[in-house]
# Entry
Amino acid sequence: MSDESSLTRRRLLAAAGAAPFALAAGQAFAQTAAGQPMPGDAAPQPAPPAERMRWAVVGLGSFGVNQVIPGFADARQSRMTAFVSGNPAKARDLGARHGVSRFYDYATYDTMKDNPEIDCVYIVLPVGLHAEYTVRALEAGKHVLCEKPMASTSAECEAMIAAARANNRQLGVAYRVHFEPHNREAMRRIRAGEIGAMRHVQCDHGFNANLQWPPHKWRLQKVLGGGGSMFDVGVYGVNTSLMMLEEEPVEVSAAYAYPKDDPRFAEVEGGIDWRMRMASGINVQGSSSYCYGPYASRQRYFGSDASIIMDPATTYYDNRLVMEGGGQPRREIGSGNSIDQFAAQLDGFSEAARANRAHLTPGEMGLRDIRLIEAMYRSADAGGAVIAL
Ligand code: NDP
# Structure
């Protein structure tokens, strides 16, 4: 011990010996009055309920009840204040469980404009109803987050965007993958050049549609589903690959691919194999299907040095990110908890709506994707012709 530090230590001991009780009491007082300070790296704390953005959830079906509503439990900037449902008993039962006490049905929907306790509306209805209920909510002065795919046609998407502008409200499409930790990490690595130059992207999404199960039944009807598997799950491949690539396609082509005479596909396509040619010269190739078993959600990014494999890529709970090449053994990249995507998306939209600035995945992005899908249908209808964009 140096002379200086031993002197300091002796002084401290003398001071403590002179007034041991006073020092202890002072410490206790300081702790009580000031409390424990927040550690510097504390997680962001949730906003008090009164300061959060207030949401109405529209359509209490499979996804609404099992994924959207639980997502609010982890949200920090968002809380639910109202439900819209055609089934009042279900709405009240869920309301009692989740502290929601304002209820609307599809006839009283427009009276939400008189409720200042609703800032944002989340549309979780069948696709064929997205445009109508989005426009009505925007006209009621609410911000709208609409489930994917945005609507049945690009004309409907344009009308939704026009209504958002006319009412000075924000419109987002619920592309939750943009908030999902594995996909965000893949995007970061791709943009940081960790796979080298991008050479090819492959995306496959599908499941076996069940004509008897209500959430699948409307998906197989043109008027409610908008389109078939390409609308429902193919859109993940289109949207997520474009999120990773930061460039737009210059042409598309597609071919229908599903069993002949299958009664499920009287109105919408069961499957499509598609291709987007990018300005840089690479191809993004994908398939979407209502005839795959088991459920498939796979994306693969092939680079000049390494590749990223995501399997599953876009599920709710358990996405995986694996890297191959780059001079290292095949390795799984831990990226966080997929379930975080739901609350992150809600809070992302709440923050955008509060500031009245564009959401990370705005209506214009949903319109772009529907235009691409429409071009793919045009190609498939023309036997796979290349459609220039
Ligand atoms: P469901 O059929 O389970 O739920 C839809 C709900 O919409 C119904 O329960 C009903 O709610 C309401 N509804 C109102 N009118 C109709 C009608 N004419 N026919 C059927 N339902 C009606 O579907 P999902 O929950 O699977 O899908 C809802 C939306 O969520 C779709 O846009 C879908 O694309 C999207 N989705 C998104 C996912 C994602 O990962 N982002 C995953 C799954 C779905 P109520 O009884 O309360 O009136």
Notes: The first strand starts at residue 53 and ends at 58. The CA atoms of residues 85 and 105 lie 5 Å apart. The chain is about 40% helix and 25% strand.
